[in-house]
Write a structure and sequence with these properties.
There is one protein chain. This protein is globular. Strands 8, 9, 10, 11, 12, 13, 14, 15 and 16 form a nine-stranded mixed β-sheet that branches. It folds into two domains: 107 residues, Roll (Ubiquitin-like (UB roll)); 332 residues, Creatine Kinase, Chain A, domain 2, CATH 3.30.590.10. Helix content is 35%, strand content 19%.
């Protein structure tokens, strides 16, 4: 949509207010409600927002131990630059638009998740490829309202399902029908296309599968879908969480499928004419596998995220790949040229979708540019392998150290982002150990629930 068309669009949809939606590195949606006159008057770079949004953690505590160069010396403003192609009617009188955070001169912030994904996509386009992607969103529904959940410290809640962890149960899906009946029309209004949904393995857990789209739209859809799910749960008096491990049952993941296509003619490029994996796909996949341990820092952003990496509980534990192997970090599907894709299974439900996809694609770029050797596929279950086998990192600190040491992945994501990200993850570990967490606990702590149940 062109700027000149905005006023007419707002008139046609009877809009008086516009809600801006940006996202922090932790995946928290932030913004303002702007009167239409303010929204239009601030175009093209948008209205201001305090840069403290990139200077504090999930609990609202400011980062005190570092101040990167891209932050102003004085505590000032950034701008919310609207992507007018994402303008949608939200409810009567109110529209919503996604924004990129930028400096006062309009330059993109190196740590803006949406802008980072766009920069990685531009580099893939320079190689001649476009990206199609789709996410699987997992969450857990509880009967208690958000207010009741807060009062109980998010413990002893009642999952909306039968208590047995069966998976794919239509009986459990029926328990959740009131939520889905309220959710799906709202997603449709936002032009978020749902391919299907089903009951998952943990009590109260569900999975929603989004229809493939171009990579940026796919990540946009996850951001808006999760926000809408939270709002629907609030409106109908239940509660929902996407945190990686809210209890001792199966955790929440955020799997992402993607494939590359030629920008010249739109043809898929992962298979040769004989149906075998192309050299391009082998190189690309090798890059993703070789950077997987370092990429885990972005895929598992919280202390709680690492509780999900448990053997025989659906989440991967090794930096491996396999053909249609759901126990590996990366599952490859090559059933036909058009359906051939890579499913990255490491990310937890609390991960930022823009950063997840940017990091997966950055690994692929490492493969395209460096052509590392692709290890053999794993043809057995990826759990229970001996300690001598490479494993994914098991703590937020170990993962941050691996990302800091990975020069190839850092080059693709940008040193300013990687420095800020790894510093913020070390800060999370510091806060966990100094503000009420218990590093010796084998179970989910009150600190983790307080920090991640609603915002994860």
């Amino acid at each position: 949509m062109d700027i000149s068309e905005v006023d007419a669009w707002l008139d046609a949809n009877e809009i008086e207010w516009v809600r801006t939606e940006g996202v922090t590195i932790d995946g928290v949606i932030i913004g303002k409600h702007l009167h239409r006159s303010k929204f239009i008057g601030a175009l093209p770079n948008g209205s201001a927002i305090s840069e403290i949004a990139y200077g504090m953690d999930l609990a609202g505590s400011p980062y005190f131990s570092w101040w990167p160069n891209w932050r102003r010396d004085a505590l000032g403003d950034f701008l919310q630059r609207p992507d007018l192609s994402t303008l949608r009617r939200l409810r009567p009188g109110v529209a919503t638009v996604l924004v990129d955070h930028c400096a006062l001169d309009g330059a993109p912030l190196p740590v803006c998740p949406r802008a980072l994904l766009q920069s990685v996509l531009e580099r893939i386009a320079e190689h001649g490829y476009g990206v199609t992607a789709a996410f699987e969103i997992e969450g857990v529904l509880y009967s208690e309202s958000v207010e009741v959940a807060r009062k109980t410290g998010y413990r002893n809640l009642t999952p909306i399902s039968h208590p047995s962890p069966i998976g794919y149960s239509n009986y459990n899906s029926h328990h959740q029908v009131a939520f889905m009946d309220a959710l799906l029309p709202r997603l449709a209004d936002l032009e978020i296309a749902v391919e299907g949904y089903h009951d998952e393995a943990a009590p109260g857990q569900f999975e929603i599968n989004l229809i493939p789209a171009n990579a940026l739209q796919a990540a946009d859809a996850v951001l808006r879908a999760k926000q809408t799910m939270r709002e629907v749960a609030f409106d109908i008096g239940c509660s929902i969480t996407f945190m990686a491990k809210p209890n001792d049952a199966y955790g929440n993941g955020l799997h992402v499928h993607h494939s590359l296509r030629s920008l010249d003619d739109g043809s898929p490029v992962f298979l040769d004419a004989d149906g075998a994996m192309s050299n391009l796909m082998r190189n690309y996949l090798a890059g993703i596998v070789s950077t997987m341990r370092a990429a885990t820092s972005v895929m598992a952003p919280t202390v709680n995220s690492y509780r999900r990496f448990v053997g025989w509980a659906a989440a991967p534990t090794t930096p491996t790949w396999g053909e249609d192997n759901k126990s590996t970090g990366v599952r490859v599907l090559t059933r036909s040229p058009n359906s051939t894709r890579i499913e990255h299974r490491v990310a937890s439900g609390d991960a930022n979708p823009y950063l997840v996809l940017a990091t997966v694609l950055a690994g692929g770029l490492v493969g395209l540019e460096q052509e590392p050797e692709l290890p053999p596929p794993l043809t057995v279950a990826g759990w229970g392998l001996p300690p001598s086998w490479p494993h994914l990192p098991t703590t937020i600190m170990d993962a941050a150290d691996l990302l800091s040491a990975d020069d190839a992945l850092t080059k693709q994501l940008g040193s300013e982002f990687v420095e800020h990200w790894t510093q913020s993850r070390r800060w999370e570990w510091l806060m966990f150990n100094t503000t009420g967490g218990d590093a010796t606990s084998a179970s989910v702590t009150d600190w983790e629930l307080s920090r991640s149940f609603e915002l994860g």
